[in-house]
Write a structure and sequence with these properties.
164 residues, mainly alpha, flat
Length: 164
């Protein structure tokens, strides 16, 4: 339901249009008459609302029973950033990325027989896989950026070669 609300707000409302415009280019949004400061605040408030909803669900548990070992506070922010990166900040992508990271977390810590595979090793393996996902997704963006810089740098040289 939260993903559907996220998609509706950002894709189908003027609020979502303004927030996306400010996120893509604050100067152009300000030139178009959109309040940049207001939309920065609204983007933070919306993300805080979703973070609070997720934290409340995580703390109280799906059976309204707070578990002491269920919440790993040191990894929650990292996983949230990794899910947003992998999902490319789209509702469908974030949903699928959350399922992948949830399966990694559940499958490596709760679904294994402790006599066959040590659970601490499985948890570390899960963190390494999550780190590699973030590394490769980030590397994809860096490589594309460097490739575009290379094209821009070589573009003025091509006409000069034809003239010579």
């Amino acid at each position: 339901l939260a993903l559907i609300a996220y998609w509706v707000v950002l894709s189908r409302t003027t609020l979502g249009y303004e927030v996306r415009a400010v996120g893509l280019n604050p100067d152009a949004a300000a030139y178009g008459g959109i309040s940049v400061k207001k939309n920065f605040f609204l983007a933070m408030a919306i993300s805080g609302l979703f973070a609070g909803l997720a934290a409340g669900t995580d703390i109280f548990g799906w059976k309204y029973d707070a578990g002491t070992l269920d919440v790993q506070a040191s990894a929650v922010g990292f996983v949230g950033i990794a899910v947003a990166l992998l999902g490319r900040s789209t509702a469908v992508g974030v949903g699928l990325a959350a399922l992948v990271f949830g399966a990694l977390d559940y499958g490596t810590t709760r679904g294994l027989d402790p006599e066959v595979f040590d659970p601490t090793l499985a948890g570390n393996l899960s963190l390494m896989i999550q780190g590699l996902v973030v590394l490769f997704v980030g590397a994809d963006l860096v490589i594309l950026y460097l490739w575009s810089l290379r094209r821009k740098r070589l573009a003025p040289l091509r006409p000069a070669r034809k003239a010579a």
